Amino acid sequence: MIILSAATITACSQAQLQRQAAKLALQDSKPRKTFSPETVPSKPNYYLDSNWAYLPEDTEAHAVDVFYVTPTAWYVPENWNMSLTNTNTKEYIQDILRRQGSVFYGIGNIYAPYYRQAHVYSFLDRSGNGSQALDLAYQDVEQAFLHYMENFNQGRPFILAGHSQGTHHLKRLIKTRFYRADLRERFVVGYLVGMPMSPLDLENPYLRICQGPEETGCVVSWNTERNGPHTLFAPVTVGVNPLTWEAGTDGAYAPRTLNRGAVFFHDVIPSKPRNQRTRRAMMAYTEAGATVVPNYTGAQVVAGTLVIDTTRQQQPLGRYIGPGNYQAYDYNFFFINIRENARARIADYLTTHPEKQLTALSKSACGCEIEPQM
User: Fold this and answer.
1) pLDDT per position as a tens digit, 130-160
2) Burial of 130: CB neighbours in 10 Å, binned 0-12, 13-18, 19+
């Protein structure tokens, strides 16, 4: 039995109001057609480099891989799912990679698939169209992951990372595929950010919340709000504070002095990719000239939501679906802390699994197939 605190109940009522406001704001972009299998965009072929938003130039540069799934970038009302021929949306996804995915640049070998994302309205829809669109998007993410495991992983440990819709699909991937012992054995950590851990999620034995800064084989999750909690996603049962890496429904306040640095890319003009396989210039935040702001904000987990201080306005901030919702900055506000934490968890994993440092040399150590063996 899960007992909700008074703060959580308040967050639920506030979430209902914000959800309604979001629904009205997105009404104009709602897909005009009913979801139909006959009209969905063509399925991606992950043997083609063009269907990957990012692939590493050197696949053995690091001992650990990062499989990263991007958040929602599809707002066009022409279809419930993104077409991979839509160049404007793919350019927007490249911008997201630059702002979020670069947190793992220089730490792991990054693999990020394009997929037929569900329209942003799918999370608000109650007609059945949205759920079908999300199911289709998940099928792509799962297939991309299985392709990655079979063709790219080479037995290396891996991190799962995502945001918003990307996290939604990664949670399902863990629930669906992590009955495989070989996947659990190589799983370093999951950064499942921008989507809550619900009571139902936490009943799954493979979605275990990390309780400390160096723990492995577990996941961390938070949703950033200001003057909250008043999240769209309620009820939330637990969150992790990325300044302390402590988990709970309600936690101690972590002052801004623990914030190693927020990173912003507002004035950075992305470089054109040299080819379909590598987009390194898009990923290195230090080379890109991004702005680093130490001690940007403190944070506290309240009713499972990460509530930040009033932000320091050195950088212009947009808002994601309503005032006080800073989901779009879940990675940026804590960028350097996340990088340091990923390094610490990788170091701990490799210390406790020394044999995994050698598996990249031989695919025979992988032991994985497109369809798992029971």
Assistant:
1) 999 999 999 999 999 999 999 999 999 999 9
2) buried
In a domain, 245, yes or no: yes
In a domain, 365, yes or no: no
pTM of the shown model: 0.86
- The encoded tokens of residue 41 equal 């965009």
Structure tokens at 195: 């989507």
Query: For position 362, what pLDDT does the model report?
Result: 42
Classified as helix, coil or strand, 76 is: coil
* Sign of the torsion formed by the C-alpha atoms of 7, 232, 131 and 222: negative
**How far is Cα 208 from Cα 211, in angstroms, rounded to an integer?**
9
Which residue range forms the structural domain that includes residue 123?
Answer: 6-351
Residue range 224-255, pLDDT digits in tens: 988 665 555 556 678 999 999 999 989 999 99
Residue of 374, 351, 368, 372 whose CA lies nearest to 153: 368
Bridge partners of 300, per DSSP, are 307
Q: What domain count does the chain have?
A: 1
Q: Which of the given ranges, 8-22, 107-121, 345-359, has the highest pLDDT on average?
A: 107-121
Confirm whether 364 is domain-assigned.
no
Give the residue carrying structure tokens 């698939």: 113
Q: Which residues of 101-115 are buried (b: 16+ CB within 10 A; e: fewer)?
A: bbbbbebbbbbbbbb
DSSP per residue over 8-63, as a string?
HHHHHHHHHHHHHHHHHHTGGGS-SSPP-TTTSPPPP-TTSGGGEEE--SSTTSSS
Q: b/e for 288-314, b at 16 or more Cβ within 10 A?
A: bebeebeebbbbbbbbbbbbbbebeee
Q: Residue 210 above 70 pLDDT? A: yes
Q: Is pLDDT larger for residue 23 or for residue 98? A: 98
Beta strand extents in 70-152 (DSSP E only): 109-113
In DSSP terms, 118 is beta-bridged to 81
Q: How many other C-beta atoms are found inside a 10 Å radius of the C-beta of residue 88?
A: 9
Q: Is the confidence at residue 125, as pLDDT, over 60? A: yes
Residue 224 domain-assigned (yes or no): yes
Stretch 337-343: mean pLDDT: 98
